[in-house]
Amino acid sequence: MLEELGLVLDRVSQIARKGEYELAIVEQNILGKPTRTTRQRTVRRLTELYALDPSCPIFRMLRRYWSVDTAGRPMLAFLTATARDPLLRDMTPYVLSVPAGETVGSEQVGSQLAEKYPARFQATTNHSTAQNLASSWTQAGFLRGKIHKTRARPQVTPVVLTYAIGLGHLSGLRGKLLLQSPWVRLLDRGPGDIQELAHEASSQGWLNYKAAGEVVEITIPEATPPAIGGRS
User: Fold this and answer.
1) Mean pLDDT across the chain, nearest whole number?
2) Are 217 and 229 in contact (CB under 8 A)?
3) C-alpha dist (Å) from residue 103 to 43, 58, 108
4) Domain coordinates of the chain in residue numbers?
5) How many angstroms separate the CA atoms of 109 and 195, rounded?
6) Cα→Cα distances 75→20, 57, 140, 173, 183, Å
């Protein structure tokens, strides 16, 4: 729901409270949905994936970075969704394992679902879930193509890395473990690329990154307290 999320965040004030998001979607119909039922379904799904609640630290970080990094928005949305949707988070390592340029079809994703979650999904649910996963990966940039999808690499900016590090901090990680968190691993970049992005994010002021041998210190200015940081 990348398009819907973008419209909501563009049209609802950054200082809006939780109820104002639902008001904008359902009553003001800023997304142009044809029926009230559709609008209610949309706000429910957006809330499940992104919270739409400033009291939620994940959403507060998303709103902060969304306004300053247009190029990184697909991955910002994707990381938020993986933080709130265990199925998307647990299945993404599969698509990361596919070599660049290879085809990824719904049937393949469905087979992986059946293997990872035996007897959890009926045939029709398995198929629709596989399609939804493929759509999410396409919107994030892991796949390319409308009908025949092939493996690609998403665009990862210094701001996206900063957000991934922030999610790692919220899960309790510190120091160099922040660069090895589940969300950093979802960026589809090797250790060297991650370090380069960290240095670039530090030079741009998004975070403070210091590394000396095995000692790594990371802090994010104006991050949701407590500040991200630590040594390992």
Assistant:
1) 90
2) yes
3) 33, 33, 9
4) 2-55, 78-151, 158-219
5) 31
6) 25, 17, 5, 21, 11
